[in-house]
Amino acid sequence: MKILITGFDPFGGENVNPSYEAIKKISINNPSIEVITKELPTVFKKSIEVLDETIESVKPDVVVCTGQAGGRFDISLERVGINIIDARIPDNDGDQPVDENIFKDGQEAYFSTIPIKAIVKNMRENGIPASVSNTAGTFVCNCIFYGAMYLIDKKYPDIKGGFVHVPFLPEQVTEKVNIPSMSLENITRAFEVMIETIATTDKDIKEIGGTIS
Ligand code: PCA
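A: This is the predicted complex of the input protein with pyroglutamic acid.
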């Protein structure tokens, strides 16, 4: 299995982005799994263009995009990407679309096709807080998740895709009050567990993982 895993560059005044810091450290001791990493710009349209070019050259079996969700306390396996951008802050190119579709000819939403419930279970068994999330927001992370699944739908039907949000690193919260963080080691380990789970799971498990509100 060849897996392409992406992270974002820093945005919103931060000096690092934990998603990219962690994917750089992934180490899988399994000769049948090849991991290719790529940093994407935190820029709406450009991130999808770079992802498309990378898929074209790498030809992966699986694409998982990752990004920072500052303020969340656990690893979030995103269930759904929606066809909307509603940017609270400008992206790294200064663009701030409000209530615009990502692709006019795309579906309203696309669901993750990686086994999110099995991944959450295995992360928890490895001592890492994780859950299924039902919103990836309306900024660049939702945009790349939706964009990845749109590309899969239109151009790469055999590829599986998904998106994972990660918390801040401890060094990002030293001056923030009551904001959670997760160590780089744990985020990296979570990604390794995710990759091993994707490689060994054909069909996702059925396990309660929803929320009431
Ligand atoms: N997080 C942002 C965009 C880039 C990133 O790492 C988001 O959640 O939309």
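The helical segments are 18-24, 44-58, 116-125, 140-154, 184-200. Strands lie at 2-8, 34-40, 62-68, 75-78, 80-82, 85-86, 98-100, 109-111, 130-133, 160-166.
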